[in-house]
Amino acid sequence: MTYPRTVSLRGKSIEITEAKRAARVAEMPEIDWIGDRDLRDKVIDAWVAALEAHGFTQIGEMKPSGNYDSMPLLTGTQCDHMRSVCRLAVKTAEEMAGLFPNFRYDRDILIAGALCHDIGKVWEFQPDNVQRWKADRHAVGFPSVRHPGYGVFICFAMDLPEAVAHIAAAHSAEGELLERSLENTIVHWADVTFWKTVEAGGQFATTDTWLDGLTGGVSGKPKSAAL
Asked: Which pLDDT score is estimated for 75?
């Protein structure tokens, strides 16, 4: 692809420049692990467009939690979570490939899917959206769309492969309603491992001050990590 180029997302015209692309790779260096140049470009561009269309300048600006109403990490960012899931997924696949001679997986799809599995959080974690949903839960729901569903929209809108959209769609609870691909299965369990290990290791904050505590008690249950 040639840059700069302009894309449209959610009715907003977004110019994708080399500087914006470099910033995304700097924040998420694992993008460079994707061998296929076209897929790598699409992952970068999807993040540039997704962030800008929803008022973010970097992934790390989003609340570092599994869901908008779950406890945040004690330290680290939302981007740290996605990078860790990617590394865990790659290590898992490499271990299985080393153990089983006939084990085959698509490394590029695995990495792209891991790095984009939570791309829909730009919608679910957007402060104006959360405040709007909280003000009237019955208007469009609370939230109106969870991040897996919105991630599908972004993936298809930015021309990412169906296999990557599938990982965004079904890495969480929504995936219990279908059969996950191999790469999605690996990402799903890497995601589960991340949050469960954070919980067991005491790495969640004890208080949630995001939006002045606006989302506290939303579920009506004790706060815990949600996948």
From this structure: 96
